[in-house]
User: Fold this.
Amino acid sequence: MNIDMNSITDPIAHIQRWLNEAEKIETRDPNAMSLATVGADMLPDIRTVLLKEIAPEGLYFYTNKGSAKAKELAENPQAAICLYWKSLNRQVRVRGTVSAASDNKSDAYFATRHPQSQAGAWASQQSQPMESREAFEKDVKDLLDKYKDEERIPRPPHWGGYVIAPLSIEFWQEGEYRLHTRCVFTRNNEDSPWSKAILYP
Assistant:
């Protein structure tokens, strides 16, 4: 599929456009993205997380704030992500600064999660060694029992959202014979205007 990169004027909105198209074709988790972070030890780390919202200020994801990724972001609040849609032969790469989402936004998203997932967020000591799977599953069950008569399970204080404010966004479309189409937007900070360049494959 030939993409006219010259027609892209708002790169953050265009990520949403590509995601919308991917949601019609990808069989599972079209919002899955690779998230790369670097902590104080300067060793890169990467994992797959789910992109939960694209807003003018940036891209949102959620996690346990005791996780490895959260600790690395506390030490170095910058990240890179990559969304890859094999069925569309497209990818988007983003680099930028990271900050915590507001409590209101984190509460609102947490409320949409399945109660089992909500209980898991309370019970999980993410990234820490686990001595017993059975004990963890019992903790989840106990939490579900604890809140079974409540209207909702509250968000744990150690769980919340992050937003990546992009400083660089690259769109990549596969081309025949590896003659790919690439377009990159860059800016100095989140309040600066975007600069745009078409790149060689």
